[in-house]
């Protein structure tokens, strides 16, 4: 267990060290920050090796946190920072690292302030890894807020957001979430200083239950695209053209889902029942609304955002069921889901870049670029639920649990998923098969001038596809 302690600490520290080295790297001969990108990719690959070694040390048959490290911060009041790991957090950290790695590969030709991009991306990677590894109140809150600093910097530099009110709402909602979570944690600490998984055994009065759990829900829902918070998330995401920043920005809802998974007890206080029903109704209405908008929109970036929103809310509703039996299924599905969305965003960025550089239409752009067409088709089919990854089987289990709990809710969720999946298929056919009309030809001479992805990137995407297929039932197959 001592070896595991060192590995867990390394998972947090390696990206920070990588950010330090990337900030000190020199620019290349053509004033590019290629050295910083190389440091970033090497750092993520190194931490994936650390995660693999950590997975070999984790007892997958053991339920709950495997606490490995405690730090005494203050004696009066008594505050300890506790770091632990379980299979659920291990899978999420691995998926986030793979998603960020794909994003870095996608920005290899982007020379605009690349050093800043890599430094803040590695800082975010370290903070969100620490967020997944904490098991006490205060370190959880510290990392919950700390990941916002690099995110704010990335969106401010690379977000291309021209409307200032959008950024104001972004800051305001996250600030309110931080205030509400701090109130809840202070009340819980005054009652009893326990770990996050033991919070359900704290006995509170009815008013305190509503205050504490209401604050917790508001804090985490402020990061999930649920009404009324969906607007600022959509406004920020659809204006991000950098694939790495888009991927990182869309990991923020994951932090909200994860927070509710960790805090929400198996047996919720009865005082929350009416509010949970309202939350479920609002969540389903949000899913259907965003799925319909994504279906009507032509912009593929919004279609991807709509698809991601539908699935994040589905995972949220699955996590709120009065049972923790679906927790591992949610983790297995999230593993593939994050990788698929990251790879898909990289391919979309490549297609959009070729379209702008060659001044051609999107319609039929995949006709003559075979490698891009193959990868894009595979990712779309995997995203909509074809049996190509662990999303297929585990989504069926999650949906079955929702169906058993509330059939009306499950039918509405299925409708939203179908709409968002059809929206992605619609875009796939639009990119692959141009209509027989002259006004939408890919180029003035009728030929597609877009460049295909390089053999090296194609090899990376093939490895990604192989990883998704191998993780069909259990992403942790390599540790038995």
Task: Give a summary of the structure in a few sentences.
The chain has a two-stranded antiparallel sheet with strand order 1-2. β1 (66-74) and β2 form a beta hairpin.
Walk me through what this model shows.
- With 480 residues, the protein is mainly alpha-helical.
- The protein contains 18 helices and two strands.
- The chain has helices at residues 2-24, 34-57, 87-106, 114-133, 137-146, 148-158, 164-191, 206-221, 230-237, 243-249, 252-263, 273-296, 300-319, 327-358, 370-383, 390-405, 407-432, 455-470, and strands spanning 66-74, 79-85.
- Strands 1-2 form a two-stranded antiparallel ribbon.
- A hairpin with a 4-residue loop joins strand 1 (66-74) and strand 2 (79-85).
- The protein is globular and about 65 Å long.
- The two termini are 19 Å apart.
Provide the descriptors you would attach to this structure in a database record:
480 residues; 18 helices; mainly alpha; two-stranded antiparallel ribbon; globular; single chain
Cα distance spanning the termini: 19 Å
- Mean pLDDT metric: 81
The low-pLDDT segments are 437-446
Structural class: mainly alpha
Helix residue percentage:
55-70%
Count of separate DSSP helical elements = 18
How much β-strand is present in the residues?
under 5%
Q: How many strand units?
A: 2
Query: What strand line-up does the widest sheet have?
Result: 1-2
Q: Any idea what the shape is?
A: globular
Instruction: Summarize the helix and strand pattern as letters.
Output: HHEEHHHHHHHHHHHHHHHH
Q: What assembly state would you assign to the polypeptide chains in this entry?
A: single chain
Determine Rg (CA atoms, Å): 22 Å
Largest sheet: 2 strands, antiparallel
